[in-house]
Structures are given as structure tokens and as C-alpha cells.
Design goal:
The complex is a heterodimer.
Chain A (H helix, E strand, L loop, with lengths): L2 H25 L20 H22 L11 H33 L1
Helix pairs in contact in A: 2-3
Chain B lengths: L1 H28 L18 H23 L10 H21 L9 H15 L5 E3 L4 E3 L14
Antiparallel strand pairs in B: 1-2
Helix pairs in contact in B: 2-3
The chains are: A mainly alpha, B mainly alpha.
Chain lengths: 114, 154
């Protein structure tokens, strides 16, 4: 076994172990996930715009990883325009929903002060 | 001699990387590197944007390492414009979200901090002091000086 093979093993080992430790801590709640899908202002409840952004992120990541694993050229695969539209739309819905909630909360605060 | 030095340097790099990677993993496992607030905001809640960035970081790291290993010419693969656009969308959403969140006190302080400031302000209100309350601090002029009674005896 030469040095290059050992280095390759070390790097894969590091990436896999780091991913495993972070994943383990996420599922055992040792990494704080409190309020990840909860609306932060106004009526605190599960936020649909957060759920759709999380699903879009997971779908996008899985699609890209699939593209990498099936790549025959050895280059990073480009992201299809359709996926970019979907992800951009999802992010816009999230940001728009957040802005709308904040505006409603702000309006309520001002009405209470008046 | 040159081949010998190359081999020695290779093993030194190999040992250093192994030591560094092992130390990082060990410190994380033993909580000497604290990851509990890895995706948390200032106010204690988890942030979806940070979580998204965590996922993208792992995806890009795994993809890049997989492809570098697969290439035979020993070069880094080019980054296509679609990937840059994707990261740009993610970063822009993060920035916009933070801008919205940080425009109000609830975005930058925890409920405990706000309650503490509220209690301090309530306590000060009984002393006659002038108090200015902000999420960061409570500033007061101190209690009002007692005034001598007008025309009273010394």
C-alpha cells in the first residue's frame, strides 16, 4: 500500500466519520434543532414555507449527488435550469413568507402602541 | 536521494493529515469542539438557512473529493455556472432572511434575555430612575436625587 492510497483512505475516513458524527448528533438532538420548522414571529406554528424549502434542499442535494455519481466525464455536473427554477422559487416563497409574517407582526405591534 | 525525500515527505504529510483528522473527530466526539449550536441563531432557535448550508457543504465536499479521486490528470474539476447560481440563491436567501429577522428584537435576543431586561426595567421603574431599555443593555441615570422640602426645617 503506497502513500497515495493511505491518504485517500484517510480523507474518505475523515469525511465519512465527520458526516456520521454530525448526523448522529442531529438525530439525538445534541445539535440544537429547536424551532427549525417553526415560524419565528407572529403565531408560532409549523411553517409550510420552511417545510417546502427543506424538502427542496434535500431533493436538490440528492439530485446533484446522483449526477456526480453517474458522471462519466470526471467534471462536476451542471445543474439543470429546471432545478434552478424550482430551487429559486422555493427560496422566494420562503423569503416572501418570512417578510409577510414580519410585516403582519410589525403592523400588530404598531396598532397596539397606537 | 530525491526519491527517498519524496517518500519521507509523503509519509510525513500522511501522518500529519491522519493526526489532524483524528484529533478533530476525537475532540468533536468528546465535546471539546462544541457543535450544539452548529445551526443555531443568536436567539437560540435553529436556522433553516444554516442547516441548508450544512447540507450543501457536505454535498459539495463529497462530490469534489469523489471527482478529484476519479480524474486521472490530478487536477481539480471546473465549477459549472449552475452550481455557482445554486450557491448564490442559497446565500441570497440566507442574507434576506437574516435581514428580516434582525430587523426586530426577537431575531437577535433569546426569550430569557428579553424577560431579564423586562424585569430590570420593572425594578427600576419603582426607584424614579430614568431607564432606557434595549435588547443589549439597560441604561439608567440612577435613582432621582431626593429634593429638600421647600421651606422645611433643617
Amino acid at each position: 500500500m503506497n502513500v497515495a492510497s493511505i491518504l485517500r483512505l484517510e480523507m474518505w475516513g475523515f469525511l465519512v466519520l465527520l458526516g456520521a458524527v454530525v448526523f448522529y448528533r442531529l438525530i439525538t438532538r445534541q445539535i440544537n434543532l429547536k424551532g427549525l420548522l417553526i415560524r419565528k414571529s407572529g403565531a408560532r406554528g409549523v411553517s409550510p414555507e420552511r417545510i417546502q424549502l427543506l424538502l427542496a434542499t434535500i431533493a436538490m442535494s440528492a439530485n446533484y449527488l446522483h449526477g456526480v455519481l453517474t458522471s462519466t466525464t470526471g467534471n462536476l455536473p451542471d445543474v439543470d435550469a429546471k432545478w434552478l427554477y424550482v430551487f429559486g422559487g422555493s427560496s422566494a416563497i420562503y423569503a416572501g413568507g418570512k417578510a409577510l409574517t414580519e410585516l403582519k407582526t410589525l403592523k400588530g405591534d404598531l396598532e397596539r402602541q397606537a | 536521494m530525491s526519491a527517498f525525500m519524496t517518500t519521507v515527505c509523503g509519509w510525513v504529510v500522511c501522518g500529519f493529515i491522519a493526526f489532524l483528522a483524528g484529533t478533530i473527530i476525537w475532540f468533536i466526539w468528546k465535546d471539546k469542539i462544541d457543535l450544539s449550536a452548529l445551526v443555531s441563531e443568536t436567539n437560540g432557535d435553529a436556522s433553516l438557512s444554516r442547516f441548508q448550508l450544512l447540507i450543501f457543504t457536505f454535498v459539495v465536499a463529497i462530490s469534489l473529493f469523489y471527482l478529484v479521486e476519479k480524474r486521472t490528470d490530478g487536477t481539480f474539476p471546473d465549477i459549472p455556472s449552475g452550481v455557482l447560481t445554486l450557491v448564490g440563491i442559497s446565500a441570497s436567501t440566507y442574507a434576506v432572511g437574516k435581514g428580516i429577522s434582525y430587523s426586530r428584537d426577537e431575531g437577535v435576543t433569546s426569550p430569557e434575555e428579553r424577560e431579564s431586561v423586562r424585569q430590570t426595567a420593572q425594578a427600576l421603574s419603582g426607584t424614579g430612575a430614568t431607564a432606557a431599555v434595549s435588547p443589549a443593555a439597560t441604561v439608567t441615570t440612577g435613582a432621582a436625587q431626593p429634593q429638600p422640602p421647600v421651606g422645611g426645617q433643617q
